[in-house]
Design goal:
globular, Elongation Factor Tu (Ef-tu), domain 3, 22% helix, Rossmann fold, alpha/beta, 5-stranded parallel sheet
Amino acid sequence: MERPTYRARVERIFEHCADTRSLFLRTLSGRLPQYLPGMFVSVSIPLANEVRVRPYTIATSPEDGEPFELCFNLVPNGPGAAWMFERKVGDLLDFTGPFGAFTLERAPDSETVFIAEGTAIAPIRPMLRRALVRPAAHPIHLLYAAHRSEHLLYLDELESMSRACPQFRFEPMVVDENFLYQRLLDEVERRWIASDNDRSRHFFVCGVGSGVLKMRDLLRQAGYERRAVRYEQW
């Protein structure tokens, strides 16, 4: 079955830092299809000899309506990201979706740990909004790492969430990129594996590369159920 294609106009651009920005898009139909926090759209990237399709996570919440936000960074030798960086206000782009299984439908019913690095905060941000839509009944943690401070995005919003919700603990960290995932692995093992035998927690992990899979394996081998460890590897 062919997936419907939607067209959207760039309404606003926000530059987080030199190599990271957000496009705010409004569909020409005026209505983005229904989606869950964490989902992505597949954007058609017209290159010289072909059209490539690249996934970009929706960084805003379903409740926000439109325009919706796509947050991304400039990937070295990445023609898709370069094309996205060239978009200007008023430009049009085509996409399908939203899609994705890395989602949060409702507020967690147990202690929950979110783990992200860099732009991988994009799916976590709307998940946190959903999780904190009402006072949390269980502890909620966010470990958010980047190898440069300017790559820690949405800090004001996340810190505001932390002040507003005593059960939400937000921990940003700047770590050398060669040791970033090892630092996250060490933190998780110390806090939620070695410290007790409680395996009722849920984890949502998003990031780039094999470190995401190492985190998944660490948690599952420690006794957490498969369904309790949700992840998305970019």
